[in-house]
Design brief:
Blueprint: H1 2-11, H2 14-22, E1 26-39, H3 47-52, E2 59-73, E3 79-82, H4 84-87, E4 92-96, E5 102-111, E6 116-120, E7 142-147, H5 153-156, E8 160-171, E9 174-175, E10 182-183, E11 186-189, E12 201-204, E13 209-217, E14 224-227
Length: 228
């Protein structure tokens, strides 16, 4: 028994303690969007055919689409952060906690330029993650990325954890020409960040948020994760 206790104790380190501390405050986000498009009449604008075949006139088609992302609580009374692109054009936002409970979330505010969204769920005494000082990030220090890649959070109600180091800081990608978002002072990490991780926290070994997992760059032989 003593040997097992010693082995178990040796497995505990700053990383595992930080993961245990912050995991309850990480959430999976399910977003329902409705995409609308116009189905054109095969007869064009011909008034005669529109009169004879009213069912074949131009009509608006609504297609429900579900997408996934990540987020993290920053206050005990239910305020949480995620990326703006996760909840963009959302008709409904549902937050899943690590205890399996689901909460409808209200989008309090968004900033498209910085790609940040503030959400709110009703309740109190939620676990939350304290903010760290991003000005004190050290290149080479260990960091932990948590989130909901590929919707795995919805399977076992637990965030996926990856670990890496800070590869670079204060990287300015500039403005994205398509979205208009501005990516400045970014953090590069080799911690694996996958689809669905967007909006999840990047934390240091103290269990403090130092960034938000935002995108991956795959135009090289290895993937690079970026947090803002």
């Amino acid at each position: 028994m003593a040997a097992n206790d010693a082995l178990s104790g040796s497995r505990q380190n700053a990383i595992t303690r930080a993961v245990a501390r912050v995991s309850p405050a990480v959430v999976g986000i399910t977003v329902l969007q409705v995409r609308r498009y116009v189905q054109r009449s095969p007869f064009g604008d011909d008034p005669l055919f529109q009169f004879l075949f009213p069912e074949l006139r131009d009509r608006v088609i609504e297609q429900p689409v579900e997408s996934l992302g990540s987020g993290f609580l920053i206050t005990a009374d239910g305020y949480l952060l995620t990326n703006e692109h996760v909840v963009e054009n959302a008709e409904k936002v549902v937050v899943t906690m690590t205890d399996g409970s689901k909460h409808n979330a209200t989008v309090v505010g968004t900033d498209r330029v910085t790609d940040i969204a503030l959400l709110k769920i009703e309740g109190n005494d939620f676990p939350y993650i304290p903010m760290g000082n991003s000005d004190e990030i050290l290149v080479g220090e260990w960091v932990i990325a948590l989130g909901n890649p590929f919707g795995l959070f919805n399977i076992n109600d637990k965030p996926t954890v990856t670990v890496g180091v800070v590869s670079s800081v204060d990287v300015d990608w500039g403005r994205d020409s398509q979205s208009g978002r501005l990516y400045l002072d970014m953090i590069q990490t080799d911690a694996a960040i996958n689809r669905g991780n967007s909006g999840g926290p990047l934390v240091n070994a103290l269990g403090e948020v130092i960034g938000m997992n935002t995108f991956i760059f795959t135009g090289s032989p290895y993937e690079q994760g970026w947090a803002g």
